Amino acid sequence: MSDLNRGIMKFDGADQPRLVAISAVIILGSIAALIVWALRVAYAVS
Question: How far apart are the first and last CA of the chain?
């Protein structure tokens, strides 16, 4: 069992590269969206 199949991702196939890539895109996209939102709110960038 790989390390990626432990923790909160306790299901078969959690260590598949496709699922890891999708998760990474969702997480990084969310972080980027929050940064953009924070900059727009704080500095009124249009």
Answer: 48
